[in-house]
Amino acid sequence: MDIGFRVLKTDTTNMKDIYYAASEYTQNLLTDQISNIKEDRTDLDLLYGVLLEWGLPLSLKHEIEEIDGVKIHIVDNDSLIACFSESVPEKVVREIAKRQPLRAVFRDSSFASSSDKINVEEIFKLLAPNTSVKVI
Fold first, then answer.
1. Suppose 105 and one of 37, 52, 82, 109 were both cysteines; which one would form an S-S bond, judging by CB atoms 3.0 to 4.6 Å apart?
2. DSSP secondary structure string, 1-62?
3. What's phi and psi for 81, nearest 5 deg?
């Protein structure tokens, strides 16, 4: 229930530290870098991090919806739509693009391959060319 009051705390970045000297790289370190987001971060951590990056007020209206069982965050009546699910099917991407939000953001590891990420950009170019798309 949203009663209009939010309590937020300051924390470190949501992203893993990925800057290492060449001599520090090992196979295990590379395997640990599959996801660039810290393991203990929630969807809301990522959402508010994105709001801060884009300079948007943290007090904007926030709703959660589901499209085909995938949770999406809608901020300020489609000013921003964010989806941080582990797997985002193309159908969900198309439904988000059809809403023509001002901004859309997805988790990098939500897509199985680079071609899937490229398809996201192409879908938005076709259905919502004015949407700023970001994959974190």
1. 82
2. ---S---------SB------GGG--HHHHHHTSS-B-TT--HHHHHHHHHHHTT--TTS-E
3. -120, 125
Give 47-58 pLDDT, tens digit per residue: 988 998 899 999
Strand 62-67, strand 70-75: pairing: antiparallel
SS (H, E, C) 124-136: HHHHCCCCEEEEC
What b/e string do you get for 74-91 counting C-beta neighbours within 10 Å, with b at 16 or more?
bbbeeebbbbbbeebeee
Is residue 83 within 8 A of residue 107, CB to CB? The reply is yes
pLDDT tens-digit readout, 111-122: 888 889 899 999
Residue in 102, 110, 95 with CA at minimum distance from that of residue 131: 102
How many CB atoms lie under 10 A from the CB of residue 56?
A: 17
Local structure of residue 99 (DSSP, 8 states): T
Model's pTM, two decimal places? 0.79
